Structure formats: structure tokens, C-alpha cells
# Entry
Amino acid sequence: MLWNAVQSQWRVGFSGPTGLDYTAVKVIADTLGIDWDEQLLKHIQSLEGATLKYFAEQTKKAETKAK
# Structure
């Protein structure tokens, strides 16, 4: 539930998403009544890492097609 709610909280640079805005993620967790603890942080970081890897793979595929 939290993961879906924070999908608008990605920080984005010139190369695309760089990571989540954890201040905003915590505010959303608090608003939803979800306890923000070390276990939740590690879980969010794991999902974030996998998503960033996916984004990078998609970018690489798009660049390869464009050549």
C-alpha cells in the first residue's frame, strides 16, 4: 500500500529517476498510519533499488533501439 502511494515521490535528475524523496515517503507513511521503522525502510530501499535497476535497463534498451 505504501509503495503504491509513494510513486509520485521520485527525485529526478537529467538522467531520470535517482531515488525516492524519503522525507515525503515518511510523511505519506505517517498519514496512512504506517509505522516508519528500520524494517520498513529496508523494504522500501530494496524496492527502490530494484525499480532503479529496471529504469536503467529500460533506458539502455531505448538507447540501443535509437541507434
